[in-house]
């Protein structure tokens, strides 16, 4: 039995070995300087200490929309295949946020410059964000917004579970479809088949008969292993182009009721309004086109996202279906910066922009001057992120990492423990949260900026899966996350280097060391 297991492990690892670091996946538009020892998209001295960058020159301003977008076409524009991996459009200049005027840049300004120049990320500054940290609050808010939809509802999830919440959601979507609202829902084939309450073919048939367009991304088919690499791990909802929901929560009732094996299920999600919603709509549109061939990236669904229409100018039937967020009754951002938050969206796509999420995290960590706080369920890390955290510790930045004491993935806790032991040895404050399973995927830097999204700090998210994160350069939002973090610390147990050998016997330590070789699959 052991020999069979080892044979399977080797068979799994061999194709992964060939795919990790494949030069063909590296974007030609992203400078290789980010892969240096310092790996930071900012100027560094020989000790990897941050050096203030000069102000941006006019040459750094994004170029106009490519002329290829100016011609009507029924096909998807070539910008959807942009190798940069950034959101596949340039927002109009009127909504692009200006760079700060100060000659001494803080960590958030350094990160913004790096993202714009190295990753092609466009920041917008007319956004509002409401943080959602319970499942009940998320589904109550999202269901209420869906009920107010008039034109279209787009959903993209790793999985929709066949449970009370999943079926209630599709019942509501069926009602909206009967009202004439266009409803499109996409889920990942592996995400669906790997959970214990998957959607069956009878459910999909029922949904389609109700008028819901349903697409399964990369269905699992024989020989299965070739479908295990690049999965759609995103969680996106866009309603009438005005309201978005994104973060770490899938559609499942355990976000409300918990699960017997680990109790409460913790996570962070967002309600978004402003031009950032157009970024998420464009990401959904590309994925939907990739799977179905239907073109959605146009003035009907995302007028903020395109400079000119992809449709014939003489066809008056095609009018924008995007509404204003003020027409909805929402949770509402009550912070001092409501409607003025600066947000950039980073997405990871295999083969095109495959390193963007890694580079974004490394840039944020390298720009930190005082404090990095991370919450992540599977921080097995990749080499570039691990090195960035070590550099931060070396230059005196306080690093706090909160992981869950319980996990929904076997073996992974032993790999995480080994990784946390190594970081604790270098001075990181590692905290094991005891309140159920903490599935949140957030990071805060210097109290100035934060990132929230679908990305785990593991090789699957950084090397293989489709992911999306919002990088929010806003103090009130970041500080609200920090308050949640501080409250959670009251329910945490510190983890020190010496605790590793004390808490993990030889068998678990062996599992951690052995399977860390295959961390790309966990």
Rg, please? 22 Å
Determine and state the CATH class of the largest domain.
Alpha Beta
User: Main sheet?
Assistant: 15 strands, mixed
Total number of strands: 17
The dominant shape is globular
| CATH topology grouping of the largest domain | Endonuclease, Chain A
Average pLDDT across residues? 81
**Beta-strand residue percentage:** 15-25%
How much helicity do the residues have?
25-40%
Domain count, please report it.
2
Low-confidence stretches are: 1-95, 307-318
The CATH architecture classification of the largest domain is 2-Layer Sandwich
Provide a descriptive summary of the structure in words:
With 522 residues, this protein is an alpha/beta fold. The chain contains 15 helices and 17 strands. The protein has helices at 2-19, 107-119, 135-147, 164-178, 189-193, 201-209, 254-257, 276-292, 356-367, 383-394, 412-425, 459-464, 475-489, 497-503, 506-515, and strands at residues 123-132, 152-157, 182-188, 213-217, 236-239, 243-247, 265-266, 269-273, 341-348, 371-375, 398-404, 429-433, 437-438, 442-445, 449-453, 467-473, 492-495. The protein has a 15-stranded mixed β-sheet with strand order 4-3-2-5-6-8-1-9-16-15-14-10-11-12-17, with helices on both faces. Helix 2 runs antiparallel to helix 9, helix 11 (412-425) packs antiparallel against helix 14 and helix 11 (412-425) crosses helix 15. The longest helix has 18 residues, at 2-19. Mean pLDDT is 81; it is low at 1-95 and 307-318.
